[in-house]
Amino acid sequence: MADMSLSYPSLVQKTYFIRTFGCQMNLHDAERVSGLLDSCGCLEASSPEEADIVIFMTCCVREAADQRLYGQCSSMKSLPDAPSGRRVIAIGGCIAQRDGERLLDTLDNVDVVFGTSAITHLAELLNATFAEGGRHVLTSENPDDVATSLPWHRATGYHAWVPIMTGCNNFCSYCIVPYVRGRERSRLFEEIVDEVEGLSRTGVREVTLLGQNVNSYGRDRYGNPRFAELLRAVGETGIERIRFTSSHPKDLLPETIDALAEVPQVMPHLHLAVQSGSTRILKLMNRRYTREYYLDLVKRVRERIPHIALTTDIIVGFPGETEEDFAQTLSLAEEARFSQAFTFIYSRRAGTPAAEIPDDTPREVIQERFDRLVKVIEGTAYEYNQHELGTRVPVLVEGVSKKDSHRLQGKSPMNQTVHAPVPEGLDSASLIGKIVDVDIDVARTWYLSGTVVGDPR
User: Fold this and answer.
1) Which residue of 97, 222, 235, 456 pairs with 115 in a disulfide if CB–CB is 3.0 to 4.6 A?
2) What residues are paired with 262 via a beta bridge?
3) Which helix (H) or strand (E) holds 131?
4) Element at 56 (helix H, strand E)
5) Measured distance CA(58)–CA(82) in Å, rounded
6) What is the arrangement of strands in the sheet containing 15-20, beginning at the earlier edge strand?
7) pLDDT top residue among 32 and 288
8) DSSP class of residue 356?
9) In this predicted model, what pLDDT tens digit does every residue of 323-354 receive, in sequence order?
10) Nearest Cα residue to 312 out of 340, 278, 283
11) DSSP string of 388-445, one letter each residue
């Protein structure tokens, strides 16, 4: 990691705290911000109270994220003085890119605003704030400013987020992401493979390949998608587990399904966001596939990987959604048999086409539909987990259960949460990042549990 402390003397020995909202790309960006600050001589703090620099990495996909940011920024005013005598508050991520300088009008205690392409300039913005005072904003898009070139402070030693592309070309009518993350830009194929090889050599067991639509990886740079080829190449790096997100149904090619089936390091889990089961609503969403296409795709995936864990995103209450449209979503969820689903009530985002669609559906009707969908998902999730009863599952240990420090918690290849008592004579901390075999004797809706057998590895 390069030492940048001489370039930014005002940052040396300053403490920092990062709070992250939103998607996995934001989590990765936060790790890069942390690495950048470390290289400037900063020290990570365990809470905002102990920090000279408080950074919010924001998401603007749903309205609640805006409200949460405003609330948390306001709460900074009541904190005791910073260790250095001055606390600088910075906002990054998608809200920063979308609102830019307007955030300074809304939040009078914010000092720095940096957009999704401006992470590489954060140190100079913070240094200028401490050295010269004033408030600093940078949200201009520069494709050469890529966070993947920054130092890296990973949250864990056993897992790494690896962005393979940024931006999105899809323009779903409800989504603000293309406006704040820009158009698709794929990283060099060889650069990604080299990065994963390096991570494997340092002891990383699992990587998650990131993109707004990984299935179109390479189209902008090479003229055609190369995601299936990338999965195969990453599978040969020595890394033990490969996951990826997000995956747009319209671009899931047969060769990618083949790679999922044939590369043993690629975990048998596919997150395939459907958003709605109604073809009419899908058209309004600009998703560019039909209900029938999605269900046929699920069928083709399961023919190649019968026990794959299929997860999804579903929006309830999209403008104009009728009871008939919602019934189509319910029946699709039952037919697709998702092992998990992230269900959301539609959140109107200014600047998107969907925000202009009139809708007078009462909130209580939308909530009642949402509750019905959750019941269906709970049923299919429970049913899926029953297949693991009596089996032996390799689990990557992530830590201990929040409810019981004597129980390990980790993830199965299918991304199920698994609990097991810490084996006698072993320390839970020493097992984090190890893979243990667990004989499953309990299968609930959202987790499995059992007993560790054999030695950790």
Assistant:
1) 97
2) none
3) helix 122-132
4) strand 53-58
5) 22
6) 43-44, 15-20, 53-58, 88-92, 112-114, 136-138
7) 288
8) G
9) 999 999 999 999 999 999 999 999 888 889 99
10) 340
11) TTT-EEEEEEEEE-SS-TTEEEEE-TT--EEEEEPPTT--HHHHTT-EEEEEEEEE-S
